[in-house]
Amino acid sequence: MNIILGQVVYSKAGRDEGRIFIVSGIIDDKYVFVSDGDLRRYENPKKKKIKHLNITAAIIESISQKLNSGIKITNAEIRKALAETKAAEAVKE
User: What does DSSP assign to residue 45?
Assistant: First the structure.
């Protein structure tokens, strides 16, 4: 599965296991940078192996567009978008 900037992922390994993140950078076909706007801020993202992530189909379009065009995003935007995504997933279940 291809990973896109702004895609929602869950960590499945490491001390951040189970946390929700967005993909804030793509390094190569094995590694990405992930941020959650809280513990892992956009300025200091976590380098994570793709095999240690549960990749969802959810893409936060507003953040994806900004990341692709090089516009700066804020940690508050990331936190808000992830909270809305988490709430939407809770409603589905």
Answer: P
Torsion sign across C-alpha atoms 79, 68, 13, 40:
negative
Beta bridge partners of 22: 8, 35
Structure tokens at 13: 């390994």
**35-90 residue pLDDT tens:** 999 999 999 999 999 999 999 999 999 999 999 998 999 999 999 999 988 877 77
Q: Where are the beta strands (DSSP E) in the chain?
A: 7-11, 20-26, 31-35, 46-49, 53-59
Q: Which uninterrupted H or E stretch holds 92?
A: helix 75-92
